[in-house]
Write a structure and sequence with these properties.
about 60 residues; three-stranded antiparallel β-sheet; 2 helices; globular
Length: about 60
Amino acid sequence: MDRIMILTNTLPHESNISIIYKGDVAVVVARDNQERLLFKVTTTAAVAMQLQAKWLVV
């Protein structure tokens, strides 16, 4: 299980997740309700695949 899936599957619903990207590089930043900050540097393609698996992307 990669870090993006861990972030989206384990954080409470009230968590904030931001995705910052430029070109092929993306940084996923998440802050949970206990103010812990988690981040992962990845590719935009990997982020897109994870988002499509969880939500309808139009």
